[in-house]
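agent> Task received from the user: take the single chain below, predict its 3D structure, and emit structure tokens. No templates, no multimer pairing.
agent> Plan: (1) validate residues, (2) run structure prediction, (3) serialize to tokens, (4) report one or two observations.
agent> Step 1 OK, no nonstandard residues flagged.
tool_call: predict_structure(input=
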Amino acid sequence: GALGGGIAAGGALAMFVSGLVWHAGVPDPLVGGDYAFNLADVAIVVGDVTLLVATAVHAWDNRHGLHQPV
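)
tool_result: status=success, residues=70
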């Protein structure tokens, strides 16, 4: 979970810094067909997917305790 959060946060920070440095907007150096994106976009998506998978694995591994009162 921490790895995914770190990757997503790093991508978000990179997007923020790019927005400050390039006044014409965040550059999109990767173009695929009709889509344009940058490495910060990729990091955010990979981090979010990693967080979701880690959450699902953690819930599955601890499913026996999900019905216990808090």
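agent> Step 4: summary for the user.
The first strand starts at residue 30 and ends at 32.
agent> Done.
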